[in-house]
Amino acid sequence: MQQGTHRRLRLGMVGGGQGAFIGAVHRIAARLDDRFELVAGALSSDPQRAQASAAEAGIARSYADWREMALAETARDDGIDAVAIVTPNYLHAPVATAFLEAGIHVVCDKPLAVSLAEGEALAKLAREKNRLFALTHTYSGYPLVRHARELINEGELGEIRVVQVEYAQDWLAEPIETAGTNKQAGWRTDPSLAGPAGCLGDIGTHAYQLAAFVTGMMPHALSAEVHTFVAGRRIDDHVQAMLRYPNGARGMLWASQVASGAENALRLRVYGTKAGLAFDQEHPNELWFTPLGGSAERLTRGRVTGAVAAHATRVPPGHPEGYLEAFAQLYKDAALQIEALDAGRALPAESLLLTTVDDGVAGLRFIDAVLASSAADGQWRAIIND
Ligand code: SOE
């Protein structure tokens, strides 16, 4: 770890107050490699809750409003370098816009925004302002996911033929949002807060991004169906899609939040002309590689060689690393990029696997195509990637 040579970057947070889940994950992840200190926050739209949440998290400067925070932090000599946006989806774009306009780097939770138009505007603004816009597609922070990408990139699988990705959870199998006590379920199933995509936006976009990240390929067409199993729910809780790739490969993606018994079962299998590989998020310290006609090889974190996996790992082989470290990897890469952008240097090569605003735009294109296909009873739709 390269400590000591870096100034600790000052981070602010919008959202993530008491009762939230992902805010606490971002706080741990940002601090894990000692590259950020959390100094400011507008943690809740309720001023009292914002204050209490900031005190609990040890955040010195608490704001009742994120607009006020963007202005006040820009005016300070010791204002924040970056902001983490961990609000419900409908606020991602307005909050990110305010901080980018103020010249502050952004780390934002997925999905990027609630519409493609909003997402494209964010991508444009981030480029104009020359600020970092990192999108936290956590699972691409795993060392073995990055290693899988390397293997494919180096041709170890041959020509890719089949991509199978799935993300199954069961926590929305019952209408838990109706009790009004589960904040997570509440906003994720409310289209005015989550946007038009439920399960599709919440975890379908993770599956889509993981497949694209590892294979280096984007599908150009899909046929899809979204479905709502739970009676009365106002948003999808299940999605399934068939994918076609420009090289002729075929793919399938399904994501469900009503798959009884499933915890956080994000799984990817990729088959090429020479070999196949399999990754299971619930066992992130191993990756299975099987050559055509050969026996399965279990590759393990800390034992696979190469700079890419080494950059994303922290402890020796056999000591499990997991979700928090994968999340921290995104913050580590973000810190490297913020330093480079602020110094007018090229982005460091080892940081380039960080998921960006463009990955977010790709996710929104996927959402649009899925919803259009589903509304047309599964008709094939083009996905325009540029
Ligand atoms: C809930 O479905 C959730 O917390 C997602 O919102 C996250 O993005 C995913 O990482 C885990 O599950």
User: What is the ordering of alpha helices and beta strands?
Assistant: EHEHEHEHEHEHEHHHEEEEEEEHHHE
Low-confidence stretches: none
Q: How many domain modules? A: 2
**What is the CATH topology descriptor of the largest domain?**
Dihydrodipicolinate Reductase, domain 2
Bound molecules: alpha-L-sorbopyranose
Task: Kindly estimate the percentage of residues that lie in beta strands according to DSSP.
Answer: 15-25%
Give me the oligomer status. Answer: single chain
Strand order of the largest sheet: 14-13-12-11-7-10-9-8-15
Total of DSSP H or I helical runs spanning 4+ residues: 12
CATH architecture of the largest domain: 2-Layer Sandwich
Describe the protein in words:
This protein is α/β, with parallel strands linked by helices. The protein folds into two domains: about 10-130, Rossmann fold (3-Layer(aba) Sandwich), CATH 3.40.50; about 140-315 and about 360-380, Dihydrodipicolinate Reductase, domain 2 (2-Layer Sandwich), CATH 3.30.360.10. The protein is about 35% helix and about 20% strand. It has twelve helices and 15 strands. It has helices at about 20-30, 45-55, 65-75, 90-100, 115-130, 145-155, 185-190, 190-195, 200-215, 305-310, 325-345, 355-375; strands at about 10-15, 35-40, 60, 80-85, 105-110, 135, 160-170, 220-225, 240-245, 250-255, 265-270, 275-280, 285-290, 295-300, 380. Strands 14-13-12-11-7-10-9-8-15 form a nine-stranded mixed beta sheet. Strand 12 (about 275-280) and strand 13 (about 285-290) form a beta hairpin. Helix 1 (about 20-30) crosses helix 11 (about 325-345) and helix 5 (about 115-130) runs antiparallel to helix 12 (about 355-375). The radius of gyration is 20 Å and the shape is globular. The protein starts with 8 loop residues before the first strand and ends with a strand. The mean pLDDT is about 95. The structure holds alpha-L-sorbopyranose (SOE). Alpha-L-sorbopyranose (SOE) binds near residues 138, 169, 202, 206 and 264.
